[in-house]
Amino acid sequence: MSWAVVTGAAGGIGTAISHRLAEEGRRLILVDMAPALAKVAADLETSTMVRAVQADLTTEGGIRAVHAEVLELGSLELVVNNAGITRDARLTNLSEENFDLVMDVNLGAPLRLVERLHPLMEAGAIVNISSRAYLGNFGQYNYSMSKGGLVGLTRAYALRLAPRIRVNAIAPGLIGTEMTKSIPAEVREKMVAAIPMQRMGAPEEVAALVSYLASATYITGEVITIGGGRSLSR
């Protein structure tokens, strides 16, 4: 089985994706800045081969570190660009620093990583984790822009890399992670009430969709929303 790169592997969704891919027998190159990455890798070592790369993908050094790992191991078949951050503020209060940081982590890093790694792939898939926020969220100007840009990047690379490599995006809605737990309870309840499924999604449900797209051989350039039907309601 070939290797898969998963960025943001220490977060809730990234950890779920890593476990799902490990269960399928994929060998994993896990990437994150957080020290918690070591524990995620250790938990998976009993079920598959794992390499952990603690790196900042907004830097050339971080991109080089992942590239070097893939060069050493060879046979890359899947890249999951999951790493992302938020720095929410109304536009009038949004600092240039936070605007640039969100754009660089959420959009710049996937662009640089894909550009560096796709020549090392004979075939396979790239899955970009966008967000339903690409449609626009109040108070998330930089985040919405970055995730919308990631959708555009997905479609552009799908055209460029076909038929050798398939490139798709997933747009999660409200998913139960540490990030969503930080939302004030009354706000979170209103958000859940607007979801036809009447609940938040689970990271494992996003991971299942990643797994599907990794092996769906006739899907490319698509954006698949996983949001419990939120797009059906106002």
What's a quick, concise take on this entry?
This protein has 234 residues and is an alpha/beta fold. Helices cover 44% and strands 17% of the residues.
Question: What's the structural blueprint in terms of helices and strands?
Answer:
Blueprint lengths: L2 E5 L4 H12 L3 E6 L4 H8 L5 E5 L5 H14 L2 E6 L14 H22 L6 E6 L11 H21 L3 E8 L5 H4 L3 H9 L9 H13 L7 E4 L8
Parallel strand pairs: 1-2, 1-4, 2-3, 4-5, 5-6, 6-7
Q: In words, what does this structure look like?
A:
Helices cover 44% and strands 17% of the residues. The chain has a 7-stranded parallel β-sheet, sandwiched between helices. The protein is of the alpha/beta class. The protein has helices at 12-23, 37-44, 60-73, 96-117, 141-161, 178-181, 185-193, 203-215; strands spanning 3-7, 27-32, 50-54, 76-81, 124-129, 165-172, 223-226. The chain has a single domain (3-222), classed as NAD(P)-binding Rossmann-like Domain (Rossmann fold), CATH 3.40.50.
